[in-house]
Design goal:
This protein is α/β, with parallel strands linked by helices. It has one domain: TIM Barrel, CATH 3.20.20.100. 38% of the residues lie in helices and 13% in strands. It has helices spanning 30-42, 58-67, 97-111, 130-142, 156-169, 191-198, 235-238, 240-243, 246-253, 256-261, 266-275, 290-296, 306-316, 325-330, and strands at 3-5, 12-14, 16-19, 47-49, 76-81, 116-121, 146-151, 173-176, 201-204, 280-285. The chain has an 8-stranded parallel barrel, surrounded by 5 helices. The radius of gyration is 19 Å and the shape is globular.
Length: 337
């Protein structure tokens, strides 16, 4: 397993990072979730990402229990704050000082750790002054509750504004966590150049486009039983737009020979593809079975030459989503409760 520096910091993380967004505390039983975490550890993954909003805190609890007994200093544990949690009252959401300071303590308790390696703003909060948010994050760092601060799905302009305030307050933003895959490239035009300028790395989620790039969803066929496409707890809703595009599903099938030519599975090709971007520090993977972890980690260290990347671009063509405005669209403009 290869490591990469996270942003302009001395922190190294595994370039394939384990995330438990739609699985732990929800889609899979705790025993299976623990087996997946242990498979990640066995494969050399030491970096784990979660959020207080995943399964309303249960995902953090499951991850904390699964990592219990491991040497804490050998792990990098990330979580996030923004979305409604707990009783989901008026102040149980957003990036106010109140919510951040209460949420970090709750996350530490559920994860069973004294500190986080990275605490991330899960979205941009349009209803809280950015100065208030960044001051709260500065205090989280000074209190030793998190070593570093990052964000998720912030626009290039928001990254710049946050960077200025962080610098004034004596800390730095070192990471951005956006969606990024062969099919979803909205960060390339603005977010990535701004991040390079500011010393920020990407920790990208959904590098396999939530399963679409595995090739298991075939045009003209119903989603395979047990796949995310049949998940009634939210998974199917997340990929319904992809599944509705027969042309896209057809193009994805034409990626199979590319993967086979390089001795890769479709998922491995997709993960390796995002890791070719030198601004990407890590690709987030999830799993509902331990063997999925074992398969995905084989993308670490893979190099795809320029002609291969060009071939992929030619196959996918105009099926790729590139409009940078989608980053702005991701953050709610009002609190969700």
């Amino acid at each position: 397993m290869d490591y990469r520096f996270l942003g302009n910091s001395g922190l190294k993380i595994t370039e394939i990072t384990y995330g438990n967004w739609l699985t732990h505390g929800s889609q899979v039983e705790d025993e299976t979730a623990t087996a997946c975490v242990h498979a990640a550890l066995d494969a050399g993954i030491t970096t784990f990402d979660t959020s207080d909003a995943y399964a309303n805190g249960r995902a953090e609890e499951v991850l904390g229990a699964a990592l219990s007994g491991q040497r804490r200093e050998s792990l990098e544990i990330f979580t996030k704050v923004y979305f409604p949690t707990g009783a989901k009252g008026a102040n149980d959401t957003g990036l106010s000082r109140k919510h951040i300071m209460e949420s970090v303590d709750g996350s530490l308790r559920r994860l069973g750790t004294d500190y986080l390696d990275l605490y991330q703003a899960h979205r941009y909060d349009y209803e809280t002054p950015l100065e208030e948010t960044m001051q709260a994050f500065a205090d989280v760092v000074r209190q030793g509750k998190s070593l570093y601060i990052g964000v998720s799905e912030w626009t290039a302009e928001q990254l710049r504004d946050g960077h200025v305030l962080a610098t004034e307050l004596g800390f730095q933003l070192i990471s951005s966590q956006p969606q990024y895959s062969m099919l979803w490239r909205v960060i390339e035009e603005k977010v990535v150049p701004a991040s390079r300028e500011l010393g920020i790395s990407q920790i990208v989620w959904s590098p396999v486009a939530q399963g679409i790039l595995t090739g298991k969803y075939k045009p003209g066929h119903a989603p395979p039983e047990g796949s995310r496409g049949t998940d009634t707890k939210g998974g199917a809703n997340m990929i319904k737009d992809f599944l509705s595009r027969e042309d896209l599903l057809e193009r994805v099938q034409h990626l199979r020979p590319v993967a086979e030519d390089h001795g890769l599975s479709m998922a491995q090709l997709a993960i390796a593809w995002v890791l070719q971007n030198d601004n990407v520090a890590a690709a987030l993977i999830g799993a509902s079975r331990p063997e999925q972890v074992a398969d995905n980690v084989k993308a670490s260290g893979v190099t795809l030459e320029a002609d291969v990347l060009a071939r992929i671009d030619e196959i996918l063509g105009d099926a790729v989503v590139r409009d940078p405005a989608h980053t702005y669209d991701t953050s709610p403009k009002k609190r969700l409760v």
